[in-house]
Amino acid sequence: MKYETNDVEGVTVVALEGDVDLESSPVARRLLLDQIARNQRLVVDLSRVGYMDSSGVASLVEALQSARKRGCGFVIAATGDAVLRVIRLARLDRVFTLSATVQDGIAALRKG
Amino acid sequence: MARRRHAEGKDSRLALLAEMAGDLATTLDLQATLANAVERITRHLQAEGGALFLFDAACQEVRCVSCYGKAAITGLVLRPDQGIVGRCIGNALGEIVMDVAKDPGFHPGVDAMTGLTTRSILCAPLRVKDNCIGAIELVNKISTDGIFSQDDLSSLEVLSTSAALAIINARMAQALVEQERTRHELELAAEIQRRLLPARREDGYPVHGVNRPARTVSGDFFDFLELPNGRILFCLGDVSGKGINAALLMAKTASVFRCLGREGTRPGRLLARVNAEIRETATLGMFVTMVGGIYDPATGGLVIANAGHEPALVVAPDGTVVERIAADAPPIGLASELFEIDDYPERSIALDGNAFFAFSDGVAEGFARGGGAEEAIIKALRAVCGRPAPERIEILADRATGTELLPRDDLTLVVVDDAPRLRGGVREPPSRRLLRQTYRGTAAALREIRDEIAACCRGSGLDAAVTSDIVLAVNEACQNVIRHGYGGEDKGDIVLEVVRTEQALTILVRDHAPTVDPASIRPRDLDDVRPGGLGTHFMREIMDEVVFLVPPGGGNLLKLVKRFDGGQ
Predict the structure, then answer these.
(1) Which domains does chain A have, with CATH numbers?
(2) Between 20 and 30 A from B441 (CA), which of B5, B95, B417, B563?
(3) How large is the ipTM?
(4) Phi-psi region of B303 (alpha: psi -120 to 50; beta: other; left: phi over 0)
C-alpha cells in the first residue's frame, strides 16, 4: 500500500493506494490517527484502493471514532465497488460519511 | 596461642566451605566454578598443586577435568587402577600419603610428564552416598614439615562432597535438558507425520482412515488420493518396529507411494515400484507390510494388492464378512533377489455395496487381548454395522485401544465403503481439486492467497462480484488464523484446499494453531461499531456454509462453501 497526504483548502486529503489488508492496515491506521491527533479535518480518498479487508475497515472505524471524539470532520471519498461492498457488508455505509468524489468530500467538510 | 590459630583456621575453613557450597549449588558454568574451587582448596590447604579427577564408568577411565598449580594436567587420562587417585576412587576413601616414594600405589608417570616431583599427597573422593564419581587430589604441602594433617583431610573430604553434589546436579540438569530437547524434536516429527496423512473427508465419501500412534511418532500410515480418472488410490502400511527409525521409513514409504501412485499405475505394479524404491535404501532388516488398492466410485470396483500384510476383510452392510484378502506376496523392502517381483499379485473385487477394511497389526493385537483377534474383530465389525464408515473405524480403534490411555502398538484402519454409491442420492458429485497449497501464516502471505483464490473462482466461471466476495471471505478466514490462531507471529502454516463440484465451490482452510471450540466462534453483533471481529461476519454473509471443524491431529479446519445456484 502507498499513500499521499495533501492539504486542500484547509482540509487534509489522505489518499491510499493499493491493498489495505492485514499487512498494510496498521500503516493506514497510524497515518489516519496521526492526522486526527493534529485536529485535521480529513477526507480519505479510496479511489485507488482495489482491495480492503476487515482489518482495513476496522482502521477506518477507529479513525472515525477518534475524529468524532475530537469533533473533526471525517469523510470517506471515492470508494470503488470492491471497497464499497466491504463497507456495506459491515453495515457501515450509514455510519461513515461517504462522498462520491474527493471534491464533494472537501466541500462537505468546508460547509460543516 | 597455638589453640587460637587452630580455631582461626577452622573458622576460615567453614567460611570457605560455606562460600564454595553456595557457588557450586548455584553455578551455571560448572567448569569455571570447579576450576575456581580447585584453586581455592589448593591455596587454602597450602598445597603446591591440586587437581579434580572424574571417573567415567563407561570408558573405565579417570580424567583430570580441572587443575591448579605448576602441573598443567587437565585432560590427563589414567586407568582406574593407576595412582593414588585411582585407589582413592576405587575405595571411595580419602587418604594422606606422607611420602609417595614409600607407597607402591604411587604412579610416577605423571611426574615424568610434568618434570615436577611429588612428595606428599592428600586425596579425597567426590562422593555422594554410595556414588563415587571422582576425586580431588592435592600434592606437596607447603609448610615446614611438608606433611598434610588429619585436619587437612577432613576439610578436603567436606569440600569434595559439596563439589560432588554440584557435579551430580549439573549432570542431572543436563540430562533433563537433553530429554526435553529430544521430546520437542519428537513432537515436531510427529507433527510432520500427521501432515502426511490425508485430511478427513465428509461422511458420504467412500474412503476413510484413522491412525493412532502408540508413541509420539508412528510406524503406521494410510493415505488416499483421487486420480485424474475419478478413481481413488489408497493404502495402509505398517513398518516393522517402532520408534523414530520406523517413523522415518514410514515417511519415506508414504511419500514414494503418493508420488508414484499419482500416475494411476495399477496397485500390483505400484507396490512393485514402491518396493524397488524402498529396497534400494531401506535399513537392513526393516520392511513394510502394505495393502494398496484402487477403488472406482462409479462402479464399486476394487483392485487390491497385499504385500505381506494382515488379511483385509470385505464386510457386507449387515456386518458379515464375505471375503478375506490375505497376503500372497512378501512385504516391501526385503532386499533379496528371491523377492524380485515385477508385479505384486492383484485381486479384483466388485464391492457391490459392501465395505473393505484393512488394519495394521496393532489393531489385531489390541483385539487379541480378549482371545482370537480375527474373531473379535469380526464380532466388532458386526456390532458397528449401519453406522457411517468413519464412525465405524473410530469405534474399532477405540475397542483396540481398550481401557488404556494410549494403544500399545500403532493403530491404523482404512475403510472403503461402497454403500454410499448404491444409496445414489448420497453420492458425491464428481469433484475436482483446484488448489492444495501451504502458505506461511503471516500477513505477507495474504496477497498470494487472494490471487490464488481469485484464479480458482474465475476458472470456475464465477463473475467478478462473486469472485471478490469469496476472495474476501477466504482472506478473512486466513486473517483469523494469522491474528488469533498464530497470535500475529510467524508460528505455523495455513493449508488451503479448493474443490469444485457441479454444485459448489468448497474451500478448506486448515491450520495447526491450538484447537478452538467451534461453539465459541460467533459473528460480531453489528450494532456494536467497534473495530475488529468483523471477519466471521463477512464469511457468514458471503458464503452459503461456514463450518468450523476439529480435524484429526489437532489444529482447526474451516469449511467454506459457495453454491453456484446462489444458495437457493
Answers:
(1) 2-104 (3.30.750.24)
(2) B563
(3) 0.90
(4) beta
